[in-house]
Specification:
Layout (H helix, E strand, L loop, with lengths): L2 H8 L7 H7 L11 E4 L9 H17 L2 E4 L13 H11 L7 E3 L2 E3 L11 H13 L3 E4 L3 H13 L18 H9 L5 E4 L8 E6 L3 E6 L6 E3 L8 H11 L4 E5 L6 H11 L5 E5 L2 E5 L2 E4 L10 H7 L3 H12 L3 H7 L21 E2 L2 H14 L2 H15 L1 H9 L1 H8 L18 H5 L4 H5 L12 H15 L6 H14 L6 H6 L8 H13 L7 H17 L4
Parallel strand pairs: 1-2, 10-11, 12-14
Antiparallel strand pairs: 3-4, 5-6, 6-9, 7-8, 12-13
Helix pairs in contact: 1-5, 1-7, 8-9, 11-13, 14-15, 14-16, 15-16, 19-20, 19-23, 22-23
The structure holds one RNA strand.
Length: 550
RNA sequence: GACUCGUUGGUGAAGUGGUUUAACACGCUGCCCUCUCAAGGCAGUAUUCACGGGUUCGAAACCCGUACGAGUUACCA
């Protein structure tokens, strides 16, 4: 009995060899330094911001180098899989303009290196495992969970490293005969890798972010194939897939760093060259005193759906993430406002390798405000409208009842050198402009009058203004002149400088008069330019709103 | 517990032995401008790079300890 017999017993139907697959998946025909990268999420139904960030790096590297960015569905853990998960992932990628070059979705396989769904790649994995068994680098393990748990407990108690290695790897020394016997008897088993490493020996590993790392060799006989569904574990799928799909750069979170020794040894055992690795810092979250890994359970902002639902512009999210990735991105982008993030000279080495970055929502908000403020009204209108179709009926209705009117509102103090920054997200638009819509305005009943609160005085101001001073034909200067005339007539101070120097000498100032008009019109004391609002509202509606006060 | 990676202001960070009296951006504070708010302008916001030693003419940068943080330690990825 030989390893060959064992391999054939376990995988009787696997006839293809590694050489066959090498032929089936030949090297890609790309120019010399082209990067082949992949986004390889597990289909949990969410796209985590950390994974998305990795995908962004993948995308940038592939596109900049004229390479390939592909999507691979890592569904080897069937218990975590969720319906529609791939659809959600594709939606997110498309929303952010990161269409993969190769993928398998909706029954279509795009690309020559598929299947791109791991559960459909069983045969390839099995062929790989069969190969490892034949060369003596993998073996069946019949240890039960209870035994393993017990073992780990003992190891911990004795302050040993935990795991299946060295003398703890009991099944590693089982004879082929015995293994065959057990398999024939129907005893469940996993396949483990037979490590040749020595934990006390070290080796250099070159991470593109951190540089050279001095790591201990792997000596763990890790599980490479699970017992229940015969699918590989992540570690083995990674080796097979990234080899045959010819991935050149693997971008993943630093939580994978402790596994690289395993991966390197696995690649060696297969006789292959490992890809380059980029281990990105984790995205952390400030939680009271401590920083912790951002989690989808506790932190809504951990998921990309959050940014989509809130209506952050695509560019804003990309910019915020790029800024974390390479902090010189922002400077570069302000210097090159018309360039796309794909023109940016991304460098893995420039990524911070420090413990992890806090994703700063305030910074995102600032970026978002700036980006929205720089859109012309047509662009904002298009973006907001598109967004509202899936995420906001309120906004959609406002836009649809009169698109032109909507554009005029959002165009107040826009399309100029220093545009207003009122809108943080698309979702924030309705609240900023609701008073410009009569039906919504009717529902607003808390008037934020500031200094002048006397009802009679308010009535006098409004009535006098609309009857004696307001003229729709006035240009802005004339309009403000008249406001000043009104101010003087009612005994207030029209000159702010004079007023500030001696506020006691007056009933109030032109600011107070303007505020009364503004609040009566909008209920709010803080709004964009009053002149523009008046023009858009028109005399009839102004009068109607004023009349509530007299 | 063991192993790994880290530690520069409130935040993201620049910085790899001497034009750094620590860049830039966000935030915060004050002033100016101003019909409000926002924007904008100006100024301030780490005498110091977790701590303790060392190397050096010179260190945030190199070395050694300590402390702290995070990650891993699954038939999850």
């Amino acid at each position: 009995m030989t390893n060959h017999d064992l391999a054939n017993l376990i995988f009787p139907n696997i006839t293809k060899t590694m050489e066959d697959y090498e032929k089936e998946y030949p090297a890609r025909n790309l120019k010399e330094n082209a990067c082949v990268t992949r986004f390889a999420p597990s289909p949990t139904g969410f796209v985590h911001i950390g994974n998305f960030q990795a995908a962004l790096i993948d995308f940038v590297m592939a596109k900049k180098s004229g390479g390939v960015f592909y999507l691979r569905n890592e569904d080897t853990d069937k218990s975590r899989e969720v319906d529609q998960a791939v659809e959600i992932i594709m939606q997110v990628l498309r929303y952010y303009g990161m269409e993969p070059d190769e993928y398998e979705y909706d029954g279509k396989v795009i690309g020559n290196y598929g299947p791109y769904i791991q559960s459909e790649r069983k045969e390839i994995y099995h062929a790989g495992i069969k190969h490892l068994i034949e060369i003596g680098r993998a073996y069946p393990c019949f240890c039960e969970k209870e035994h393993l748990d017990q073992m780990r407990e003992n190891q911990e108690k004795n302050k040993m490293r935990t795991g299946y290695y060295g003398r703890y790897a009991t099944c590693r020394n089982m004879s082929v005969e015995e293994a065959i016997e057990k398999i024939k008897a129907g005893i469940p088993y996993v396949i483990r890798f037979r490590s040749n490493g020595n934990f006390d020996d070290r080796f250099w590993f070159d991470d593109l972010v951190r540089g050279k790392l001095y790591l201990n060799q792997n000596d763990q006989d890790i599980v490479i194939m699970k017992s229940d569904n015969l699918l590989p574990t992540y570690h083995f799928a990674h080796i097979i897939d990234d080899h045959f799909m010819h991935t050149t750069h693997v971008v993943r979170g630093e939580e994978w760093l402790p596994s690289v020794a395993v991966h390197i040894e696995l690649f060696e055992a297969m006789g292959w060259t490992p890809p380059k690795y980029i281990h990105t810092p984790l995205i952390l979250k400030q939680d009271g005193e401590i920083k912790r890994k951002i989690s989808k359970r506790k932190d809504p902002e951990a998921l990309m759906s959050y940014y989509m639902e809130k209506g952050y512009p695509v560019e804003a999210v990309i910019e915020a993430l790029m800024t974390i990735i390479n902090s010189n991105y922002e400077e570069w982008h302000t210097a090159n406002p018309d360039k796309s993030f794909l023109d940016f000279d991304f460098q893995a080495k420039k990524m911070s390798s420090s413990g992890g970055a806090l994703f700063d929502l305030e910074k995102l908000n600032n970026i978002s405000k700036n980006i929205i403020s720089k859109m012309d009204k047509e662009t904002l209108y298009q973006n907001a409208y598109e967004w509202s179709k899936t995420y906001s009926d309120v906004l959609k209705n406002l836009i649809e009842q009169d698109p032109e009117y909507f554009k005029q509102i959002i165009n107040i103090e826009r399309e100029q050198k220093k545009p207003r920054k009122d809108y943080e997200t698309y979702a924030s638009i309705p609240n900023e402009i609701c008073y410009m819509y009569d039906d919504l305005f009717e529902k607003m009943d808390t008037y934020d009058f500031q200094k002048i609160t006397d009802k009679n005085e308010i009535a006098t101001i409004l009535k006098t203004y609309i009857e004696d001073y307001y003229d729709e034909q006035d240009d802005k200067d004339t309009w403000f002149q008249k406001i000043k005339e009104l101010t003087t007539k009612l005994g207030y101070c029209a000159d702010m400088k004079a007023y500030k120097e001696n506020p006691e000498a007056y009933k109030g100032s032109v600011a107070d008069i303007s505020t009364v008009i503004r609040v009566a019109l909008t209920t709010r004391s803080m709004t964009p330019d009053l002149y523009e609002l008046l023009r858009l509202l028109g005399k009839e509606r102004i009068e109607k709103r004023f009349k509530k006060f007299y």
